[in-house]
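Reproducibility note. Readers wishing to regenerate the assembly model reported in the main text can use the exact inputs given here. Chain order matters: entities are listed in the order in which they were concatenated for prediction.
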Amino acid sequence: MKDRTIGGILLTALAYFVALVMFFPILWMLLTAFKTEQNAFTIDPHFLFVPTLDSFRVALEQGSGYLHYALNSVVSAVVSTLVGLLLAIPAAYAMAFFPTKRTDFTLVWMVSTKFIPAVGVLIPIYLVYKQLGLLDNLVGLTLLFTAMNMPLLVWMVYSYFKDIPKDLVEAADIDGASTLQTMRKVILPLALPGIASAGLLALILAWNESFWSLTMTDHTAATLAVYIASFKSAEGLFWAKMSAASVLTVAPIIVLGWFAQRQMVRGLTFGAVK
Amino acid sequence: MAIVELKDVVKNYGGKGSDAADNAVDRFNLTTRDGEFIVLVGPSGCGKTTTMRMIAGLENISGGTISIDGRDVSQVAPKDRDIAMVFQSYALYPHMSVFENMAFALRLKKLPDAEITARVQEAAKVLDIAHLLERKPRALSGGQRQRVALGRAIVRQPQVFLMDEPLSNLDAKLRVDMRAEIVKLHRKLAVTTFYVTHDQVEAMTMGQRIVVMLNGKIQQIDTPQRLYEWPANIFVAGFIGTPSMNFLRGKVGADKRSVANEHFNLTLTGARGDALAAHAGTEAVVGIRPEHLSYLAPNDPITENVLSGVVEVVEPLGSVTMIQVQVGPYRVTAQIESHLTVAMGEPIRLRCQTDKLQVFDATSEQSLLQAPAAS
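Running the prediction on these inputs yields the following structure tokens for the assembly.
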């Protein structure tokens, strides 16, 4: 054991404090979900109360459409991640193993698309989508998610590929492997943890995405983000029901994240600990 | 087995306003014999690895042609050149077992399983790694990885082997062992081999012919013995042999056999001396290897072809002793017998073996001597 110094204790305390601050909104959401609507609305916060499942009942009842929204979320998140990986892997492969003078520029350019606030491109995209008939369309939304996560996927996969010595690609080349064979039999098995964590991150980002879901969809292609927002209605805010809906929305991805935690950590630190 | 021919091969990485002066490899010409072991040697950045990578097809050539057994492969993909390469880093596939590493190329060729197994086991036996076939590369020592890398190359039964500094990651003792083993393997398989190294000892001990390179240009292609005895220029003379050759600058004398200045006067004997006939008065650099200098007792009457100076450094190596002697402005290294006791600061006289001297033109740095025709 290390000696406990004052600084160490302070640092630990600070870590706990930061963790609490970060976790508090989630805790509050969880608590609110089990409150009555009345209780949820009081000014002085109640930490102790008789829990009720009423809000969940309402959120899940027939006509709330939870399953419809959830299905849209699953489809758009999963398909956009898979398509994204399918495009990002060859792109990253080319840039990592066969860089040209413009590779660095391409990478920066890709990430620079993330510098623009989404609202800045809302109008043009909205108009284009309207012309193409992609508004409130699951294909259209999935396409947006793919484009949105593409720079992240390329960057992450690129950095994992960069950790693989180019000699391996050349050795496979001399051994008689085609580019596809080299990718499939040599590079992908080695970069799998990294690719998995990149995919997981893209999946989470697409799942939690709300800006495009709220603006580009109405009902047919609407995701769980729209479902949560629907509890903010003209008659007023329904904090408890909204919280229940939020819990139902984040639950699947948190469970997934929990299971994939080890994989994630390994993937995100891949290379750093080698 | 194959004859590899490189004709005027040029590599230029391009860039703005680059011309022939920027060639990473400049007009490389070489024709191997069938089954020959060629070593490419030179300091880092001399173009030896680039040359090998061009033979492999991993690097495009900017000019000239490369052919294997008469077939122009200049534009052929690496996998269709029928070559195998051993990388400096070994480049073993970390997620595959030793067996799968060696079988990889054969599986891609879609050979029947039985043949793959037979070939891998045969190669494993030759390299003494049969007991490691199930292991992953990370569970192997450096020397074992080296053997697997060699094994992966030989199961292919290629026409040409390329080895890019394959021993540089091994410790000194293992390197000497593997050196002998690779030579043995080559004699057994008799496959034309290109071997890149920056280590002149490796080059001398392994190569049947050695290509000495500097700044992208071939300096000399010759057998080890001839490189040692008849270096074409000052660079080769200084690069081959340890410790390095001593160089003293003077003028070719009126007698057309000697090179001298105020600190020394060395007369060449035999055919070496005859070669200087046309160069009287030329500014020249005379080269003497440390092993061709010997200790001369103070009372010895010999005065010709003697260097006199003061002992500066004494390095006993056990079998011999290396001494550094200040002769005028020159620091001369000499190898003397270990039983002789010389002390730092003492005056000393060294006798030159005049039939081993080298003479180079001081400006062009090319040898003024005529090497006898190769046998």
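We highlight two features of this model. Chain B has two domains: 4-235, 245-361. Chain B is about 25% helix and 30% strand.
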